[in-house]
Write a structure and sequence with these properties.
Layout (H helix, E strand, L loop, with lengths): L1 E6 L4 H11 L5 E8 L3 H11 L3 E4 L2 H14 L4 E4 H10 L5 E4 L7 H9 L3 E4 L2 H17 L3 E4 L2 H9 L13 E8 L9 H4 L4 H4 L9 H9 L1 H14 L6 E5 L5 E7 L4 E5 L5 H9 L13 H4 L13 H12 L3 H17 L5 H14 L8 H22 L2
Parallel strand pairs: 1-2, 1-5, 2-3, 3-4, 5-6, 6-7, 8-9
Antiparallel strand pairs: 8-10, 10-11
Helix pairs in contact: 2-3, 4-5, 5-6, 6-11, 6-15, 10-15, 11-14, 14-16, 15-16, 15-17, 16-17
Bound molecules: nicotinamide-adenine-dinucleotide and magnesium ion.
Amino acid sequence: MIGVTVLGATGSIGSSTLDVLARHKDKYHVVALTAHRNVKNMLKLCADFKPEYAVMALSDEAEKLAVGLKECGGDTKVLAGVEGLEYVSSLDQTDCVVAGIVGAAGLLPALAAARSGKRILLANKEALVMSGHLFMDEVKKYNAELLPIDSEHNAIFQCLPSDFSDGLTANGVRRILLTASGGPFRKTSLEALKNVTPEQACTHPNWEMGRKISVDSATMMNKGLEVIEACWLFDAAPEQIQVVVHPQSVIHSMVEYLDGSVLAQLGSPDMRTPIAHALSWPERIDAGVQKLNLFDIATLEFEKPDFSRFPCLQLAFDAVKFGGTASTILNAANEVAVQAFLDKQLSFVGIAKVNQIVLDELSYHDALTLDVILSDDKMARELADDVIKRVSH
Ligand code: NAD
Ligand code: MG
């Protein structure tokens, strides 16, 4: 039996993961589930999956969960806070950690999983974007296995040779073609973008996701974060990555080789495919995903990305070029700006403005230690808060 810890069990990635695990109870058992504050949902998940541990990030909520579990007679142990998240990411009985927390909050538990040599199924791209160098070093040092479940990166992984550790060029790879749906505002004019609401931004044409990544898809910051994610995962230079807008989200990404071959991975837009792939790799298991019907799809379209309407995409390429903590700073500014937009304190186009100003105004550092990363993350958040007050008045 393979022991699995699911970080962010109450989220969109968490529930897709639990759906796959429930189909294979003979192979996988849930060691631990974690959540931020949703006690009600967590009680239900504990009843269904009977984990050894349940962690709530907030301690008051952990107490409520403990009381609730006692009433139902469950013997799941309840832990709280970041220490609890790190603990369940490093347990001996955990073989595999699903990093499904959203944002920088997922960094420390994901690092704990790396340092304990686990197989890490990475959805939490912000963790890698903010700490790329350190994270990849720790994965190597502690012999952990880092498998992407972000659908594009999982597709790229599937299209690369099984061992690409000696570099893309040595394996005959010319470029990575990173596909993007274009989000809900693919055809919206710059003028109209000024007035879009959080509800409109969170309505994605092809995927059902948490609110933060939905807004990131709408600004195309998500694709920007994915460019940075791909640079770290596949040791790629930004020039080796071409973003291709593909509105149907059927091709999840492609790899172009020197001989002109382009390999693609296709499938229904359903996160259970990359999750099942990475859980069972190098084997394959059923994921409950609807078969791809090419006759129904009939047409696949491709467009160039529009950097003028989606400036966040350019900011991500800039941040990779600057190096060091530039990506940490961009990620932190973006998290604050997206939250302000969701709270109706900032306009949609204000997100890119805040990100640009914070990236311009802060100086970045070589990002080799956790202290430097966390301190630049904090500085960027504080500056973003100030800038939001400036631009929204
Ligand atoms: P979500 O909002 O649906 O879920 C987030 C989860 O993280 C929840 O379980 C929540 O309880 C937990 N969480 C939030 N804040 C926390 C905190 N401070 N401390 C501890 N836990 C906290 O988000 P999601 O859509 O599942 O996305 C999760 C991650 O996966 C993101 O990094 C996202 O970019 C990435 N991702 C998601 C999808 C998708 O289809 N949803 C696809 C690719 C990548
Ligand atoms: Mg993705």
